[in-house]
């Protein structure tokens, strides 16, 4: 290669890096390549969610778990194979209770029929999470698209980034700040616990043997503890019963999760932890004093941030044909 050739080569490589490294997500990324894509997702959601009212919670949680490990790249959808290794994220402990994989596959197969190889699984997860929460009457948020699918999924990696329900505030803050999310995002996004269920096993130590004391968590409302022990989590090793995180309005995206936190009735230690600093407590109070529209607007801002974590764009990654396997 002569000097000019090397020069051109360098320019091309640099532009190439720029393209793959810095390409941004954009609103309506598929408007030319697959104009009906977003409508197909929305129609599928609107058709199926009314028959599966517990799925929106599962689907937004799937999105959260995807984004926190290797970015929002659909790595959570990969099945274990000889090329991905034995234990993909899907099979790791935090995923034991993640649901909604079949729903994503249903959307993907429609999109593959409409425009093969165009719409990424990572965008499908993100759009489905938003549209299914909207379908329940909850908040909406912007979903710029153009994410690409990752090639790697490693179950061991889920244990670091995904916070445990036993986390204290400083651990939660660290876990979120690693993803570029601040304390306000933490408080606002935890508000997703206004919908859905938790298994007894995620919090039974707070009922039966907190921190090795043999007693309940003193920061958990004692009346509520007695109630949960009598009616829901009747033994310390119950691994099957599910409990509403926001009893009374488990399918409604409202502010009552925050009301419960202040009544010392947040289900997980990680929920209760949000009341342990004056900063986070003030954020909770502000949300409760504001309107539901204000909560939805704050939730939208934080979801838009979460949906951009570590995304692959441009020519990074790929667009999977089958969300469970790399091409
Ligand atoms: C702050 C750290 C968080 C922790 C420690 C945490 C932990 C958990 C745990 C342990 C469960 C119950 C799993 C089970 O026992 O079945 C759960 C459920 C759930 N989480 Fe979180 N979570 C956190 C943040 C989030 C965020 C950011 C979102 C979404 C934006 C979210 C959405 C949900 C939803 C909707 C459910 C109910 C799922 C269902 O009903 O299937 N969580 N979370
Ligand atoms: C991926 O693995 C799950 C088991 O967790 C299985 O139910 C599913 O059929 C597999 N997906 C494909 C496309 O083989
Ligand atoms: C998965 O990640 C762990 C921890 O980072 C590492 O030790 C292991 O080798 C990885 N497994 C595969 C199959 O790459
Ligand atoms: C994967 O796991 C199976 C059994 O669960 C084992 O027989 C096999 O050797 C493992 N493969 C690798 C690459 O670790
Ligand atoms: C929070 O939990 C972490 C990890 O378990 C622990 O190292 C740390 O000391 C705890 N912080 C506080 C303030 O309790
Ligand atoms: C848990 O127990 C340890 C040792 O007994 C103690 O140092 C720690 O403060 C306790 N943590 C909480 C949250 O009560
Ligand atoms: C729960 O644990 C107790 C004692 O630790 C045991 O007697 C009981 O059989 C266990 N129940 C289940 C469902 O595993
Ligand atoms: C939905 C799904 O694939 N869940 C898996 C999570 O991981 C466990 C093993 O740790 C599998 O048994 C589940 O099938």
Task: Provide an overview of this structure.
By secondary structure, the protein is mainly α. The protein has two domains: 31-158, Peroxidase, domain 1, CATH 1.10.520.10; 169-306, Peroxidase, domain 2. It is built from 13 helices and two strands. It has helices at 3-22, 37-48, 55-68, 101-114, 121-135, 169-177, 183-190, 205-208, 222-231, 256-262, 269-272, 278-289, 292-306; strands at 197-199, 242-244. It has a two-stranded antiparallel sheet with strand order 1-2. The relative contact order is 0.17. Bound molecules: protoporphyrin IX containing FE and 2-acetamido-2-deoxy-beta-D-glucopyranose (7 copies). One 2-acetamido-2-deoxy-beta-D-glucopyranose binds next to loops. Protoporphyrin IX containing FE (HEM) is lined by residues 57-58, 60-61, 64, 97, 99, 163-165, 167, 172, 186, 189-190, 192-193, 195-199, 202, 268, 270. Its EC number is 1.11.1.7. Keywords: Calcium, Disulfide bond, Glycoprotein, Heme, Hydrogen peroxide, Iron, Metal-binding, Oxidoreductase, Peroxidase, Secreted, Signal.
What's the SSE blueprint?
Layout: H1 3-22, H2 37-48, H3 55-68, H4 101-114, H5 121-135, H6 169-177, H7 183-190, E1 197-199, H8 205-208, H9 222-231, E2 242-244, H10 256-262, H11 269-272, H12 278-289, H13 292-306
Antiparallel strand pairs: 1-2
Helix pairs in contact: 2-4, 2-5, 3-5, 7-12, 7-13
Keywords:
single chain; 327 residues; mainly alpha; Peroxidase, domain 1; Peroxidase, domain 2; 2 domains; two-stranded antiparallel sheet; 13 helices; binds protoporphyrin IX containing FE; binds 2-acetamido-2-deoxy-beta-D-glucopyranose; calcium; secreted; EC 1.11.1.7; Secretory_peroxidase; Haem_peroxidase
